[in-house]
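FYI - complex with manganese (II) ion, inputs then prediction.
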Amino acid sequence: MMFITYFGHSCFMVDTGGKKLLFDPFISPNPLARHISLSTIQADYILVSHGHEDHTADLIELAKQTGATVISSFEIHSWLHKNGITNTHPMNTGGHWIFEFGKVKCVNAVHSNSLPDGTYAGSPMGFLIESNGGNFYYAGDTALHYDMKLIGDYKQIDFAFLPLGNNFTMGVDNAVIAADFIKCDKIIGMHYDTMPMIKIDHEEATRKFEATGKHLILMQVGETIEQ
Ligand code: NI
Ligand code: MN
């Protein structure tokens, strides 16, 4: 069993049953997350899919505040060290590591990657997490790609976070195909509505998933659900 809290855009807290994993912290610049106060956020780990501002805006502040271990590409890890954050665990695509909460496998994401100051940030990644509470896939920012089939063949996934907003990532139609590739029926949407270019029609998106027998969850910012 896991508890998932949505902080807007692609930022989620997943409580795996004792350990809190925070993904892609972008909260304070997000107008849809104005009611979330950073100071209340706790985390044991912060996982960073890539370096873009809309995934890292609050990374340094929250890493300092929480003392969490940051899991990211080697290049983001190096950048964090230059910025005074030393509690890090560098990884790269294809690798896995066993942490106290479970296993993290870094998987392919088709996107670009740099840090807000222009520093090269390595390959963008998704994460496949196996824990006692269940298995899930956090896609990061990505296009639909055929390697997602490998994920579906490799592990049974209880739920997945997929980007839906189009323009910068895949949109709803491709996310429906992605859900099929990863063989997962429960999708939690991310990377939509934050700005005009990635606005989606919630009802239409939900209908498109339901039409293929899949369930789309569009969480409210600040909401916590149990999976
Ligand atoms: Ni991005
Ligand atoms: Mn993004």
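The pocket of nickel (II) ion (ligand 1) is lined by residues 50, 52, 111, 141, 168 (CB under 6 Å). Residues 2-226 form a domain with the Metallo-beta-lactamase; Chain A fold (CATH 3.60.15.10).
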